[in-house]
Design brief:
It contains two helices and six strands; from the N terminus they run αββαββββ. With about 140 residues, it is of the alpha+beta class. It binds coenzyme A (COA). Coenzyme A binds next to strand 3 and strand 6.
Amino acid sequence: MSTEDAGILERAKERGSHGRQQDEGVLVIRTIAMPADTNPAGDIFGGWIMSQMDLAAGNLAARVAQGRCVTVAVEGMQFLRPVKVGDEVTLYAQLEKVGRTSMRIHIDVWARARYSKDGAKVTSAEFVFVSVDDDGNSRALPTE
Ligand SMILES: CC(C)(COP(=O)(O)OP(=O)(O)OC[C@H]1O[C@@H](n2cnc3c(N)ncnc32)[C@H](O)[C@@H]1OP(=O)(O)O)[C@@H](O)C(=O)NCCC(=O)NCCS
């Protein structure tokens, strides 16, 4: 990565930073897994977790782009452990890379059982978002 590219990434990270930076990234969403979010087996539905991840990455992307963004790709989705009803679910976002219009955002999801002290990582993935204009065409990210 050139010095100039590193500078653009650093400025984008500044725009996207909100809250305390932790090892896993910035905490973007913390919610509770509810009975309405289960699959037929009674565990939390993977699609619900994926939508929370898309929301978390989209929130960071919108801050970085300072405008409308769309998901263009999701890569490397891994489900490491099941999430149970009542778990506290926490999503961390980390801006990995910026291009002219795109942002690569790593999302880690942790779950903590309601009465437990410790949590564990349950899912992670890389989201690529593109900054778009009002017509849905890709739009350059702000450089300042
Ligand atoms: C996102 C979208 C506007 C991109 O349009 P496009 O004509 O491919 O635009 P471009 O070719 O200018 O690409 C824009 C950027 O996206 C990146 N990109 C496009 N497809 C990609 C993919 N599959 N994976 C990773 N990056 C991708 C390009 O590399 C480019 O990055 P850069 O500008 O940082 O170099 C268009 O594909 C789209 O509208 N997709 C649907 C988005 C959507 O509806 N999402 C919600 C789904 S529920």
